[in-house]
Amino acid sequence: MEARVTKKAYEKMKAKLEELKSRRQKISKTIGEAREHGDLRENSAYHAAKDEQGLNEMRIRDLEAQLASSVIIDDEAVTQSDVISLNTTFKVKALESEREYEYTLVPEIEADVLEYKISPSSPLGEAVINCRVGDVVEVEAPMGLIKYQIIEIK
Length: 154
Hints:
Number of helices: 4
Oligomer: single chain
Distance between the termini: 29 Å
CATH class of the largest domain: Alpha Beta
CATH topology of the largest domain: Chitinase A, domain 3
CATH superfamily of the largest domain: Transcription elongation factor, GreA/GreB, C-terminal domain
């Protein structure tokens, strides 16, 4: 499945992949040292290092697959629109509480709710994609249905 990502996100994934690959040697050394402690059946340091090695290799495979299926999108082209799409910053107002929130719609890999960056697969992201200023969307949340009005697109 193709994943649309910004150049920044792509470079971030590549850097993380290199970091994980560089850990291979350290983990291998730790396994070798743990082997020297004797009986492997009761050697917790050995088993912990082997588990770490397995997780590291799994992360490497996942990142390699993500990078292989990534399509880098043009930041400039995406943001020049009057509809919400990837890389768009927008403000919404919760109609019941009148509270305003500002989010940026980003590819999944860049999503970070603490930085107000949401992905199109999040409930709000899915609801607002391709919407315009003035549109009202409904989002199903754990506490019930929330209606938001889009009040600004940057």
